[in-house]
Amino acid sequence: MKLSIVIPVYNVEDTLDRCVESVLHQGIGDFEVILVDDGSRDKSAAICDEWQTKDAHILVIHQENRGLSAARNAGISRATGELITFVDSDDFLKEGTYSGIIALAERHDIVEYPVCRFHQSSSQQIISFSDKVYTDPKRYWLDAKGYSHTYACNKLYKRSLFDNIRFPEGQVFEDAATLPRLLQTARNICTVNQGLYYYTLNEKGITATANGKELKNLLDSHIHTMRQWNDTLYYMHVLNIQMDVCELSGEAPTLPFMRINPLAKRLPARLRLKALLLDLFGINGICIINKAIHQWKKPRS
């Protein structure tokens, strides 16, 4: 099966070559690389065009700046492969990653492989997976904690999953809104412990700099998903997001209250105090406590 690799590009002249080179060294034969220049103001557009002249696998799309989701959606619309994946242009892949898992992608609707959260000047964190196939998306979301690694990029998909699904434009944290919809459409999800996607942590990126309104997008996506799939650990994960939203925006909590037994065996020890505070003071109370603690910890000038 042919693999379409969609790479949104915006002002990444320093990392674009590394990204494209890593994609071209994957050891697969039938593939296309779609570079979507989203109105770059640096040399990125010219670099894209240079790659298109050098390699017949590469197709370039130039469009006005409309954001990451719009760039991905443009690539999806032009893709001709039966399989599709996404790579952010400041990230890169370990050599041979796709060649090691593409056979699995031909048999499964979604294949997820390890991701390394990589910082140029400090440590790295690898998120790995057991070799497993899930036929129930709820079990993947809760048992494999899919909610904590909703990255679009460390996955190969059947292109047909996107027939009626696109990334939401004008919204940040778009992956968390899109992945649950894809999971509900997929017949199966396969996780593997081979290959590696290097996710570059950007100090100026949305994950590091999001304000309360932007984090509210992420919170709303999870609250919507919780209506179908929920358990104790997922709820505690979303509670952390709710506390951040309250601290940054000052808005009242929107996460519904869920009573959690602080002594439940499945609850890790590190979460038991938080569960106790939730039980005693409710969501609004625990948000107030969280904000007060962070203000107390701030250095005095």
Automatic annotation (TrEMBL):
Keywords: Glycosyltransferase, Transferase
Glycosyltransferase 2-like domain sequence ranges: 4-165
One GO MF term attached to the UniProt entry: hexosyltransferase activity
Transferase in keyword set: yes
One family name in Pfam for this protein: Glycos_transf_2
CDD domains: Glyco_tranf_GTA_type (cd00761)
Lineage: superkingdom: Bacteria
Name of the molecule in the record: Glycosyl transferase family 2
Originating organism: Prevotella communis
